[in-house]
């Protein structure tokens, strides 16, 4: 009954959804994205693939070591990857083997989901992190596709959602065969939401998994030798606040005179430039071909360069953590051995952030004033800054077996 009401609401909103999809696909993704999100696919590349769903860029990066491990152990196993965004699709092309087929996730309309399942006929579905789609889950069960939630996380806000939303989530999660939780706290939340504890296993954060050993080392992006601070994956209402904190800190002689801002959504680059210029900063925009040589702030509104920029940084500030967005991935700069600063809102990466902070591999700041002081102290003490980066890398290296745990769990489900 509740799913019927949910579906009726989706259909009632369909004109707005179609308009949003048209605009989104025009900016990125094109007609293929539009067609596939409506559930219309070309002839599948594989028969009976293992299907992994990754919402966007972060989940694709998280899934990459797992996919490579699966292919090493079962090279006969076809893999289908779905994403909801064009940037996720572009990351899949860059990060994953060419033997992995990518298509877009269908919208959660019953017709679109049925067309997806009938076309691709997956033998197993693996949903990364927190994507809960009632029709997708229900119809997967109806088509006898076992579902696993991998690196599963659930925020406290989900447990405090309105009663109808919780009931809808509870009903969807009843169709899941196994929940592989990233932390004990997440496992408890899934249990409180009605998942049978016998179907929950805590394996740790897949984001801590090491990269593929054959992957080439990340080369720092050439910034003409200029020392820099990188604000990584920032969101709206963060860039100006971070810039102002850095500007006050750079009155100290040692603090780098270049701030690189990498927005989470690259299309925001021109708008960020305008805001910062109005605030009096000298700003250059990478996508416009402007150089950083005469700039105080360099906006790297491009795809695929974040890791190279972080590798060149003296310190990395984690975006999405100064505002209530739950934070962005801090494992990548840790793996590069970069000193890390993050704000008060790291709910999306709570386990990873706490593990790094406890090991002395990251520092937390509470607000802009605290960030300013943290930057001043780190650049007054090069030894402390170096040790922060070394502990970050060591903490990630200690999690070498996580990929194997997830791989074994998926292969066991296939055998069962």
Layout of helices and strands:
Blueprint: H1 2-12, H2 14-27, H3 30-37, E1 50-53, H4 57-73, E2 79-83, H5 86-95, E3 100-104, H6 110-120, E4 124-128, H7 134-142, E5 147-152, H8 156-159, H9 163-173, E6 178-181, H10 184-192, E7 200-202, E8 228-234, H11 239-249, E9 258-263, H12 269-278, E10 283-285, E11 297-299, H13 306-311, E12 315-318, H14 331-335, E13 340-342, H15 350-358, E14 363-364, H16 368-380, H17 382-397, H18 402-415
Parallel strand pairs: 1-2, 1-4, 2-3, 4-5, 5-6, 6-7, 8-9, 8-12, 9-11, 10-11, 12-13, 13-14
Q: How would you describe this structure to a colleague?
A:
With 416 residues, this protein is α/β, with parallel strands linked by helices. The chain folds into two domains: 39-210 and 400-415, 3-Deoxy-D-manno-octulosonic-acid transferase, N-terminal domain (Rossmann fold); 228-397, Rossmann fold (3-Layer(aba) Sandwich), CATH 3.40.50. 45% of the residues lie in helices and 14% in strands. It has helices at 2-12, 14-27, 30-37, 57-73, 86-95, 110-120, 134-142, 156-159, 163-173, 184-192, 239-249, 269-278, 306-311, 331-335, 350-358, 368-380, 382-397, 402-415, and strands at 50-53, 79-83, 100-104, 124-128, 147-152, 178-181, 200-202, 228-234, 258-263, 283-285, 297-299, 315-318, 340-342, 363-364. A seven-stranded parallel sheet has the order 3-2-1-4-5-6-7, with helices on both faces. The longest helix has 17 residues, at 57-73. The two termini are 32 Å apart. The mean pLDDT is 91.
